[in-house]
Amino acid sequence: MNVAFVGLGTMGSPMVMNLLSAGHSVSVHNRTRAKEQSVVEAGAIATSSPQQAATDADIIITCVSDSPDVEAVILGESGVIHGATSGSLIVDMSTISPGVTQRIAKTLAQKDIQMIDAPVSGGSEGAQKGTLSIMIGGAEADVEKARPVLEAIGSTVTHVGPIGAGQTTKAINQIIAAGTYWGVAEGIALGLKAELDMDKVIQAVGSGASASWCLTNRSDNMINNRYPLGFRVRLHQKDLAIALQTARELNLPLPMAAYVEQMENGLIANGHGDEDLSAIARIVREMGGISDD
Ligand code: NAP
C-alpha cells in the first residue's frame, strides 16, 4: 500500500517507523523539513509539501497539532486536497474538534476524497512500540481499507461510529486522563509529605484498584519533579477545550475537566506548556510546599 504521512512530531515519526517496518512504502512531509531526515534514513521518501506527499498515495495520514493545523495541511495552499486523487482516503490521526473534522470531510467529499478520523491514545511509548489505541469515526468501507495500515501503528483499532465519533471518543479519553493525572498527583503529594518509601507505595497501589497508565508510566516524573516529553501540557489543554466545547453543545456540565483545564492554563502561563502532562504535579506540589529534595 502506498502511504503518505504528514506531520513528523513526537507521534508521527515513530508511527512512520512502524509503517516502514511493516513493509509499506511511505512518502513523508513535515513543515520543519529537517525532521524528515531520520525517517528518510529508515526508507521513507521526502516530499516538498502535503500536496506532493499525497500524489500517488492510496492512504494519506495526517498527524499535526490542532484543528487549524489539520485544516491547513489538508485544505490549505499546497494541502493534501490538491494532490490526492479521486477515491483516495485521508486518515487524520491528530486530536481535533469533531465539528471541524466533519466540515473537512464534507469539503473533501466534493472531490470524491474520503476521510476518517482516527485519533490515538497510548502516548509516545505507544507510538514507538506500535501499541496505540486507535478510535475511529467514518464509513465502514473506509475503515476496512485503512485497517491493515492502522494495525502497523496500533494494537487496538476500534470503529466507534460515523465521521467525528473517533474525535468525540478521544475527548472522553482526555476527560478521564485529566482526572487520573490529577488524582495520581494528589496521591503522590500525600506520600511525599508523609515521607513514605514511594517505590513501595507505587508498587502497592499500582497492583490494586487504583492501577492506571498514568500511575505506571508517569509517577516517577511526579515524584522526581522532572517532566520530559511525553505529551505536552498545551496539547492536553487543547484536548480538554475540545471536550468542554463538545459538552457545552450537548448541554452537559463537566466540572472536573473544567478545573483541570484551568490548572493547565496556569502551567502554560508559567512557561510549562511544553513539558509532559505529568507536570500537573507541579501545582499540587507547590500548593503543599513540597520541595525538590
Ligand atoms: P508535536 O510533537 O508537537 O508535533 C506536531 C506536528 O505537527 C509537527 O510535525 C509540526 O510541524 C506539525 N504541525 C503543527 N502545526 C502545523 C501546521 N500549521 N502546518 C504544518 N504542520 C504543522 O505533537 P505530537 O505529540 O506529535 O502530537 C500530534 C497530535 O497527536 C496532536 O493532535 C496530539 O494532541 C495528538 N496526540 C499526542 C500524543 C502524545 O503523547 N504526544 C498522544 C496522543 C495523541 P513542525 O515540526 O514544523 O512544528
UniProtKB/TrEMBL annotation:
Top-rank lineage group of the source organism: Bacteria
Residue stretches making up the 6-phosphogluconate dehydrogenase NADP-binding domain: 2-161
InterPro entries attached to this UniProt entry: 3-OH-isobutyrate_DH-rel_CS (IPR002204), 6-PGluconate_DH-like_C_sf (IPR008927), 6PGD_dom2 (IPR013328), 6PGDH_NADP-bd (IPR006115), HIBADH-like_NADP-bd (IPR029154), HIBADH-related (IPR015815), NAD(P)-bd_dom_sf (IPR036291)
Domain annotation 3-hydroxyisobutyrate dehydrogenase-like NAD-binding: ranges: 164-283
Keywords associated with the record: NAD, Oxidoreductase
GO MF, any single term: NAD binding
Pfam family, any one: NAD_binding_2
Active site: residue positions: 170
SUPFAM superfamilies per the UniProt record, alphabetical: 6-phosphogluconate dehydrogenase C-terminal domain-like (SSF48179), NAD(P)-binding Rossmann-fold domains (SSF51735)
GO biological process, one term: organic acid catabolic process
Keyword Cell inner membrane: no
Keyword NAD: yes
Protein family according to the UniProt entry: Belongs to the HIBADH-related family.
Protein name: NAD(P)-dependent oxidoreductase
Organism: Leptolyngbya foveolarum
Taxonomy of the source species: Bacteria, Bacillati, Cyanobacteriota, Cyanophyceae, Leptolyngbyales
